[in-house]
Amino acid sequence: MTRQDISGNQVKLVYLALGSNLGNRLINIELAKIKLLEKGIIILKSSSHYETLSWPNPNLPKYINIVLEVKTCLAPNNLMQVCKKIEVSLGRKQSVKNSPRECDIDILDYDQKIMDNTINLPHPRMHNRNFVLIPLFEINKKWVHPRLKRHIKRLILTLPKKNITSIKQI
What we know:
- The protein has helices at 25-38, 76-89, 130-139, 152-157, 161-165, and strands spanning 12-20, 42-46, 50-52, 63-72, 104-110, 115-116, 120-121, 168-169.
- It is an alpha+beta fold.
- It has one domain (12-169): Alpha-Beta Plaits (2-Layer Sandwich), CATH 3.30.70.560.
- Strands 1, 2, 3, 4, 5 and 8 form a six-stranded antiparallel sheet that branches. A two-stranded antiparallel sheet has the order 6-7.
- A hairpin with a 3-residue loop joins strand 6 and strand 7 (120-121).
- The protein is globular.
- The protein starts with 11 loop residues before the first strand and ends with a strand.
């Protein structure tokens, strides 16, 4: 059976990662959630807030990260466009890769779909990131990586010990 909304468009289950390490990080994340709702993206679950060191340079401001379970009728590319517009509306500017930012929104998993073109799904580095895996595990302990076919608990256990111990729930 296919999930559908009243307009007949298929509803997809999606996981998004939100992060901020500039300005009022908590407010930035909450504003991003509000803006997602305003775009018709329904938030089903939200993880706790987690603080992590900035990567690859731990001397930069620490991040606050969350993972959201959402449902949407937007196609992957349209959802990505919405996320990028929200980032810009919250102050994100074009800059060097991995530089500090007010808001970062990544599509982690779009309805277990695998894509390798204008958008890569699932997110190509998510399985190596403590700030993604631990909040995702909090909201879906049964999640399985669509490409790797590995259970989230197993992915977390493959992280270096320092990555597991360095993340802090706030």
